[in-house]
Amino acid sequence: MKTLFLLTFAAFTPVFAGFGTWAPPGPYDVRAPCPMLNTLANHGFLPHDGQDITREQTEDALFDALHIDKMLGSSLFDFAMTTNPIANSTTFSLNDLGNHNVLEHDGSLSRSDAYFGNALTFNQTVFDETKSYWTDEIITIEMASNARLARIKTSNATNPTYSMSELGYGFTKGESAAYVVIFGDKISATVPRAWVEWLFEHEQLPQHLGWKRPTELFRDGDLDKYMDAMQNTTVSDTPGCPAGKQQQRKARRTPSHFGW
């Protein structure tokens, strides 16, 4: 009876939303290969069941939780919509984001490549490699860039079906920049390591560790700036990535879907 009560409670938490509300996914809820979007669903900023998410819900969730400009949120919604296999749909579900080689890609920071199994769920071994490149208590863009490159190299070396599309390559840069400058501080381009580890491993906002909603609004131009930083530190050494200035320029303009 107690177990049934807990499952029922988790299923009905979408009625509530906020920094003080959190519940893990229930048996009928869906989640993405993205710890941040999963976190927003667990807190109720997005529908807790993770299904049929609208443009307005996406914009509001990203603004209310992370202070992301609604125009950027709308752009991210457009990218998410490309993963919905249902023609003419006006919503997406979090598990749609797991459709391989649309936005989801090899070399994730916290998920296995699709070749090895379920790319939707957190993989501690993969994440342990990522965080081994965060060599201080404060993560910098350079550390994030090193971790990103290491994961791409590992994937390329171990996955016989490894591929990296131009779109996927752009998203890897946006994703790595995002957990530093959106979740952390865009002025200093740093974030406490403990905050990021808690987010990835628990899919919960680490308020108990001192995290608060950013005071600075995060705009599209901010993301471009730090994607440029990722580009400048890794492009020449990234295996299997699109080559040439034109592809690099297009990849840099690709927003992150936070599929960290």
Give the structure's gist in a few sentences:
The chain has helices at residues 2-11, 35-42, 55-66, 70-81, 124-131, 141-158, 166-181, 193-202, 220-234, 245-252, and strands at 138-140, 190-192.
Structure commentary:
The chain is mostly helical and 260 residues long. It has one domain: Chloroperoxidase (Orthogonal Bundle). It contains ten helices and two strands. It has helices spanning 2-11, 35-42, 55-66, 70-81, 124-131, 141-158, 166-181, 193-202, 220-234, 245-252, and strands at residues 138-140, 190-192. Strands 1-2 form a two-stranded antiparallel sheet. Helix 5 (124-131) packs across helix 6 and helix 7 packs across helix 9 (220-234). Residues 1-15 and 243-253 have low confidence and may be disordered.
List the topology elements.
Elements: H1 2-11, H2 35-42, H3 55-66, H4 70-81, H5 124-131, E1 138-140, H6 141-158, H7 166-181, E2 190-192, H8 193-202, H9 220-234, H10 245-252
Antiparallel strand pairs: 1-2
Could you list some keywords that capture this structure?
single chain, 260 residues, mainly alpha, Chloroperoxidase, two-stranded antiparallel sheet, 2 strands, disordered N terminus
Overall strand count = 2
Sheet-strand content, in percent, reads under 5%
Report the total helices. 10
**What's the overall geometry?**
globular
Number of domains: 1
| Rounded radius of gyration (Å) | 17 Å
What's the SSE pattern?
Answer: HHHHHEHHEHHH
Q: Which architecture does the CATH hierarchy give at level 2?
A: Orthogonal Bundle
Overall average pLDDT: 86
Report the CATH topology name.
Chloroperoxidase
Question: How far apart lie the N and C ends?
Answer: 37 Å
